[in-house]
């Protein structure tokens, strides 16, 4: 069984889960840890520890952090260095969360999922230009 943990600054993690559930419905295997400006690093760690307890029965946990080297990311990699079941990604976007949640719900193999997370995340970032081109993905 694979769980998903979304961590980040402010209430971005809760917002990501909310958007995910608007599109996919209830996601009981998805947990979040917000890091509002009023929290200290100690409170962040306490909240992460509570999430880890909730996720103790998962064989693997895919952790999505908003930023490389941010406090949530730094705290998560400490856990990943202690327990191999935690797989930490940074630079999270909704596209990579959706793709991962679909793969988890379809019970795809963890190695397959992990190999594709970063690629999907990168593919979900780009800039729309109004000029038509032969490579326009929106053409019929």
List keywords for this structure.
four-stranded parallel beta sheet, 4 strands, Rossmann fold, alpha/beta, globular
CATH level 1 class label:
Alpha Beta
CATH topological fold name: Rossmann fold
Strand percentage: 15-25%
Helical run tally: 5
Can you identify the CATH superfamily? Phosphotransferase system, mannose-type IIA component
- Uncertain stretches: none
Biggest sheet details: 4 strands, parallel
Silhouette = globular
**Rg of Cα set:** 16 Å
Separation, N- and C-terminal Cα atoms: 39 Å
In a few lines, what is going on in this structure?
The chain is of the alpha/beta class.
Please characterize this protein's 3D structure.
Strand 1, helix 1 and strand 2 (30-35) form a beta-alpha-beta unit. The radius of gyration is 16 Å and the shape is globular. The protein has helices spanning 12-24, 41-54, 71-82, 94-105, 110-123, and strands at residues 2-9, 30-35, 60-65, 86-90. The model has no long low-confidence stretch (mean pLDDT 94). The relative contact order is 0.17. The protein contains five helices and four strands. It has a single domain (6-122), classed as Phosphotransferase system, mannose-type IIA component (Rossmann fold, 3-Layer(aba) Sandwich), CATH 3.40.50.510. The chain is an alpha/beta fold and 140 residues long.
Which secondary structure elements does this structure contain, and how are they paired or packed?
Elements: E1 2-9, H1 12-24, E2 30-35, H2 41-54, E3 60-65, H3 71-82, E4 86-90, H4 94-105, H5 110-123
Parallel strand pairs: 1-2, 1-3, 3-4
Helix pairs in contact: 1-4, 2-3, 4-5
């Amino acid at each position: 069984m694979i769980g998903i943990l979304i961590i980040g600054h402010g209430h971005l993690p809760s917002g990501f889960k909310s958007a995910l559930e608007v599109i996919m419905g209830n996601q009981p295997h998805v947990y979040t840890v917000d890091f509002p400006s009023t929290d200290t690093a100690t409170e962040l760690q306490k909240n992460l520890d509570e999430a880890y307890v909730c996720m103790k029965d998962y064989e693997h946990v895919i952790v999505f952090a908003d930023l490389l080297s941010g406090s949530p990311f730094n705290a998560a990699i400490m856990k990943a260095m202690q327990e191999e079941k935690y797989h930490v990604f940074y630079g999270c976007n909704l596209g990579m969360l959706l793709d991962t949640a679909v793969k988890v719900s379809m019970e795809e193999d963890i190695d397959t999922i992990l190999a594709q997370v970063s690629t999907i995340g990168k593919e979900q970032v780009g800039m729309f230009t109004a000029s038509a081109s032969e490579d326009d993905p929106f053409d019929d």
